[in-house]
Amino acid sequence: MAPIVSVQNLTKTYGNGFQALKGVDLEIHEGEILALLGPNGAGKTTLISIICGIVNASAGQVLVGGHDVVRDFRQARSLIGLVPQELTTDMFETVWNTVSFSRGVYGKKPNPQVIEQVLRDLSLWSKKDNMLRELSGGMKRRVLIAKALAHEPKILFLDEPTAGVDVNLRREMWQVVEKLRANGVTIILTTHYIEEAEEIADRVGVINGGKLLLIEEKNALMRKLGRKQLRLELAEPLVTLPASLAAYDLALSDDGSALVHEYQGDEGQGSIASLLAMLAAEDIHFKDLSTRQSSLEDIFVALVAQQAGEQA
């Protein structure tokens, strides 16, 4: 099946010479949730803006639903809903009118049933007659999503949708995203909150310095790049490690009371059993054992640091 969004060798250089994107290739599959991670200035918003037809690329091609975003702008844009970072709404307009007007902007005929369903799905129905200025920040963000969904797009871009909102509202927003995906909407999310990607994304892309460093199915990424750690609290402290343990990737804590074994993915499963057997043979006993797996944040930080080191 062809991707619903195809980005090929996308480059963007601004008039001041700043290169925001450097040959980005990306395919987005219908019905998935893709999280794009990257620090400020990484190129996330520029990438989204080009796909949505707001910014012109310097080179490369973008297809949305098979339509070129430059040659077939109207057809491509009609498939896309965009929720920007900024709260850009008319504060003296009602929720109902704001969302209904957004549908008309895309040339769709009035359809009160669609508007009602969107508002109900986003828990905004009770606020339909309220002016935007009367709503909380979280409700205003929901209105932005309602505006983006009013013309029934197949693809929804969420650019930092939970920036500046509290944890409870953030979790409510995740539930909204899951419901949208269940209704067949493809969702592309940019975020600074890596736990969002870890919780809801199917695939994760890491972008930095205008380059897409990787894009991978989330669980596969965690298996491939996530490091695991085994920590053994010793019954009696050690001064040094026996020579027989030199073959294992072990570190002795400063006070000699713990051994730490790090390994990548599943590669260490066999070695752990061997290590424990060797410890028993050396008459080294432990009183407690714990394991830890690196998070998506650990992987992200390591990738960005690695790229920075390569560019230094």
Automatic annotation (TrEMBL):
SUPFAM superfamilies: P-loop containing nucleoside triphosphate hydrolases. GO terms for molecular function: ATP binding. CDD domains: ABC_DR_subfamily_A. Residues 5-234 form the ABC transporter domain. Signal peptide: none annotated. The keyword Nucleotide-binding applies. This is ABC transporter ATP-binding protein. It comes from Neorhizobium turbinariae.
